[in-house]
Design goal:
Layout lengths: L10 H11 L3 H13 L5 H13 L3 H14 L4 H11 L13 H10 L4 H24 L3 H34 L1 E5 L3 E5 L8 E6 L3 E8 L3 E5 L5 E5 L3 E3 L1
Antiparallel strand pairs: 1-4, 1-7, 2-3, 4-5, 5-6
Length: 239
């Protein structure tokens, strides 16, 4: 396990780092949480906070904050490695449903950018299309007209694709929310009430998707293997 250095130079960050590096993990957690309470966020902060929980063998919170760090720095190898260590300490083994080549490619492309990222790319493509179209409209040379027409047509197709991915990503983000099981053990039921049958049991640290809520007391979740069920909302912490 390693600790990323903070880019921020505030006293609070320095003190939190010192507490972490000297093994006062709970005190460091308190200081990091006070920084979060001041609405300051960074991948480094989440990473070190996750490390503190990992050192204290609190797997649910450690995985939660590693995942939060990944949201801000998705390609960071230190975060990915430490998340892997924490995940090995979970009880549940949920195998992901294998995807075919096309579905895997689409999902990878879709998740390569956030909603804001796809929106920014779409706006850039709109400007590029307008410039190329004006070039076609104003050009007097047949060869240049042909070049501008072909280029603008290609950009227009890419623009439509980008807009399609933007709307799909927006719908996906609006209907599915990742969360971590925080309860030591959580019974997943067939219906949103205590009298319904228990379908299976999940344990601390398992990542799920929230696909629906009922009366704020129950959340319908989906696992990577496609299984679904209802759990008590207090057993979850949305990312």
């Amino acid at each position: 396990m390693c600790s990323l250095g903070f880019s921020q130079s505030t006293t609070s960050f320095k003190q939190a780092n010192e507490l972490y590096n000297t093994g006062y993990y709970q005190e460091a957690i308190d200081r990091y949480n006070s920084i979060l309470g001041a609405n300051q966020h960074s991948a480094e902060l989440y990473f070190n906070l996750a490390n503190c929980y990992y050192k204290l063998n609190e797997i649910g919170p450690s995985i939660f904050y590693y995942e939060k760090a990944l949201q801000l720095s998705p390609d960071d190898t230190d975060i990915l490695n430490n998340l892997g260590y924490a995940q090995k300490m979970t009880i549940d083994t949920v195998l992901e449903v294998p995807e075919n080549g096309i579905s895997k490619f689409i999902n990878k492309t879709l998740n390569s950018l956030s909603v804001d990222g796809w929106a920014t790319r779409s706006v850039g493509l709109v400007f590029l299309f307008v410039i190329l179209f004006l070039g076609y409209y104003l050009s007097r040379s047949e060869s240049k007209k042909r070049l501008f027409f072909v280029s603008s047509s290609i950009v227009f197709i890419v623009l439509l694709t980008s807009l399609g991915l933007l709307f799909k990503k927006e719908r996906l983000d609006a209907t599915t929310h990742p969360a971590i099981i925080f309860a030591k053990e959580s019974e997943v039921r067939s219906e949103p009430n205590l009298g319904s049958e228990t379908s299976f049991t999940l344990h601390e640290g398992t990542k799920v998707l929230i696909v629906e809520t009922y009366n704020s007391d129950w959340s319908k979740i989906k696992l990577r293997n496609g299984e679904t069920g209802w759990v008590s909302t207090v057993d979850l912490k949305p990312l």
